[in-house]
């Protein structure tokens, strides 16, 4: 049985279906108190407490090893809440009066959570801790299995309603043979991370996916965008995957124009695959991924290590680090970002760095400027996300200069990296010439640029058809950006997912991009395309595409090329 979705990582894998259902904690209906065996419920509660205690202790140990004792301290607080005499008393009295253990836990924790939510600042954050402990107890009482995403058995095909970016970042590419999700688009961050980890993925399959049973034999074909249960030999053999020889050197077009083909990464785990696939450096280091899935932000030393590790992996190539781009679909619970109706249009990227989280921006800039003075730091470049105003970019440059002055005053070694900006909003594309005048480079983020030009949520598979960078409006925004860079002696790259589609390489070369940066998995195929492209023909192709008024016409132009 074959189901179709959106092919996201163009690789295929076969394995055993495993459902990830993180939050199915629906309570059974509450029986009459007279029908409840209070002693048995008390014993169930004590067992659940013991299990939770053991899990929290284990989480504490892991956090201490991975991120340090300070971050692990939060679990001490969890242990105290778990044994809080008032809370435990209340739960046990409710059980004694004939309330089943799960209802007693849910009710009493619910009250405590509501109390904390009504308080200010740090106290309100305690509500999250209580939710965490309540959910641990409920999972144990309801026998809801928790799946440890970082320790899945080899050959797992992970099925889920949706995955968050941090869920996906936890996956071990050596054990996960594929991912398929009910919702999600090709440029959602979970899909992007899966691609960076080279995990075959199909997203946006729809409700049909839920019919696949736990333990089924499943093929995920990320090239064709299909999920097949019990695939036969022919289906396995036909499953797609981008396949091209790895070329380590920088490649040139057939007529000698050099194009850098770099990789996008979110963290250290993606460096080796990027090197192995012959990437010419890093065109986008999504530094915000260093901030996800933890209890507090990484400090200057940890960020410095992450940046210098990336520089050392590519000692002769450029490494472009994007400053913190949180907000949108990248939630960071410990930062207490405001709840917003339209988070993609709200406090994101540079807006937060210059506003509510200027402290984090300063720490990050210190780490970056110091890394620029490190052994391989000459090729470090830094870019700002989500800019819409010249004032923002001017303010960001000022911050860089003031951090440099501070480091200077402290006698700390630093150097100035190249500075650039992401072109991912229509405002930035319209202002590209003014931006290029002030900066060393522009990097086009087509995932967001398409989202904002087309007024389409990149996460929403119901409108996924609108999210197509081949729409003439997006192509014209790209063209405008490239011309602005050329006219101002700045280099121009593209780090949105469009750059990684080998079928579009000739078009992008024709549009005049100097650099293309993508999930490492497609680097070899894009390099191959660059080598087979002649720039004169590519320019004609781009001119024809730019003359189109509809996406259908653009597709016809590409088909005919
Ligand atoms: C590269 C981009 O940034 P991100 O996908 O991380 O938002 C983009 O928007 O194209």
UniProtKB/TrEMBL annotation:
EC number in record: 2.7.3.9
Chief location bin: cytoplasm
Gene Ontology biological process terms from the UniProt entry: phosphoenolpyruvate-dependent sugar phosphotransferase system
Residues the entry annotates as binding Mg(2+): 424, 448
PROSITE patterns: PEP_ENZYMES_2, PEP_ENZYMES_PHOS_SITE
Region (Disordered) location: 1-69
The keyword Signal appears for this protein: no
Origin superkingdom: Archaea
Short name of any one Pfam family annotated for the protein: PEP-utilisers_N
Keywords: Cytoplasm, Kinase, Magnesium, Metal-binding, Phosphotransferase system, Pyruvate, Sugar transport, Transferase, Transport
Catalytic activity as recorded in UniProt: L-histidyl-[protein] + phosphoenolpyruvate = N(pros)-phospho-L-histidyl-[protein] + pyruvate
Limits of the Phosphotransferase system enzyme I N-terminal domain: 5-126
Subcellular location: Cytoplasm
GO cellular component terms given for this protein: cytoplasm
Amino acids binding phosphoenolpyruvate: 286, 322, 447-448, 458
Ranges of residues in domain PEP-utilising enzyme C-terminal: 248-533
Job of this protein: General (non sugar-specific) component of the phosphoenolpyruvate-dependent sugar phosphotransferase system (sugar PTS). This major carbohydrate active-transport system catalyzes the phosphorylation of incoming sugar substrates concomitantly with their translocation across the cell membrane. Enzyme I transfers the phosphoryl group from phosphoenolpyruvate (PEP) to the phosphoryl carrier protein (HPr).
Family: Belongs to the PEP-utilizing enzyme family.
Protein name per the record: Phosphoenolpyruvate-protein phosphotransferase
Organism: Halonotius aquaticus
Encoding gene per record: ptsP
């Amino acid at each position: 049985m074959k189901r179709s979705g959106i092919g996201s990582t163009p690789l295929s894998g076969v394995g055993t279906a495993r459902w990830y259902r993180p939050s199915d904690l629906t309570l059974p209906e509450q029986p009459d108190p007279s029908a409840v065996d209070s002693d048995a419920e008390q014993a169930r509660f004590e067992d659940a407490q013991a299990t939770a205690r053991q899990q929290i202790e284990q989480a504490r140990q892991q956090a201490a090893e991975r991120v340090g004792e300070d971050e692990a301290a939060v679990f001490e607080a969890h242990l105290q809440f778990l044994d809080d005499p008032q809370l435990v008393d209340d739960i046990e009295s409710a059980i004694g009066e004939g309330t089943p253990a799960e209802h007693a836990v849910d009710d009493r924790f619910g009250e405590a959570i509501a109390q904390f939510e009504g308080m200010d600042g740090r106290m309100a954050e305690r509500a999250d801790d209580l939710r965490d402990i309540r959910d641990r107890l409920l999972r144990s009482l309801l026998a809801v299995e928790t799946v440890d995403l970082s320790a899945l058995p080899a050959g797992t095909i992970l099925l889920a309603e949706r995955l968050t970016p941090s869920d996906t970042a936890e996956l071990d590419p050596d054990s996960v043979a594929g991912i398929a999700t009910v919702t999600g688009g090709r440029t959602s961050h979970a899909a992007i991370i899966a691609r960076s980890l080279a995990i075959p993925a199909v997203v946006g399959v729809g409700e049909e996916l839920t019919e696949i049973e736990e333990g089924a034999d499943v093929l995920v074909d990320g090239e064709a965008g299909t999920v097949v249960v019990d695939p036969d030999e022919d289906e396995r053999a036909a499953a797609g995957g981008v396949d091209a020889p790895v070329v380590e050197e920088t490649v040139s077009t057939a007529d000698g124009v050099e194009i850098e083909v770099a990789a996008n990464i979110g963290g250290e785990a993606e460096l080796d695959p990027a090197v192995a696939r012959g990437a010419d450096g890093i065109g986008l280091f999504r530094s915000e991924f260093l901030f996800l899935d933890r209890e507090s932000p990484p400090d200057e030393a940890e960020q410095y290590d992450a940046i210098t590790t990336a520089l050392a992996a590519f000692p002769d190539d450029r490494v472009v680090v994007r400053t913190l781009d949180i907000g949108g679909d990248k939630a960071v619970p410990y930062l207490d970002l405001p709840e917003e109706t339209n988070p993609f249009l709200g406090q994101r990227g540079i807006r937060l760095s210059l506003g509510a989280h200027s402290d984090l921006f300063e720490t990050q800039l210190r780490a970056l400027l110091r890394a620029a003075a490190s052994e391989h730091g000459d090729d470090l470049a830094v870019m700002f996300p989500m800019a819409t105003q010249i004032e923002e970019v001017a303010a960001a440059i000022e911050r860089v200069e003031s951090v440099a002055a501070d480091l200077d005053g402290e006698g700390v070694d630093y150097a100035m990296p190249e500075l650039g900006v992401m072109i991912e909003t229509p405002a930035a594309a319209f202002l590209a010439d003014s931006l290029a005048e002030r900066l060393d480079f522009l990097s086009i983020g087509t995932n967001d640029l398409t989202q904002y030009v087309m007024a389409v949520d990149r996460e929403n598979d119901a409108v996924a058809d609108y999210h197509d960078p081949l729409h003439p409006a997006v192509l014209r925004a790209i063209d405008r950006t490239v011309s602005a860079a050329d006219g101002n002696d700045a280099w121009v790259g593209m780090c949105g997912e469009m750059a990684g589609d080998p079928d579009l390489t000739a078009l992008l070369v024709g549009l005049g991009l100097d650099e293309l940066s993508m999930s490492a998995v497609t680097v070899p195929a894009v390099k191959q395309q660059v080598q087979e492209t002649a720039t004169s023909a590519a320019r004609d192709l781009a001119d024809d595409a730019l003359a189109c008024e509809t996406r259908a016409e653009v597709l016809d132009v590409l088909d005919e090329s």
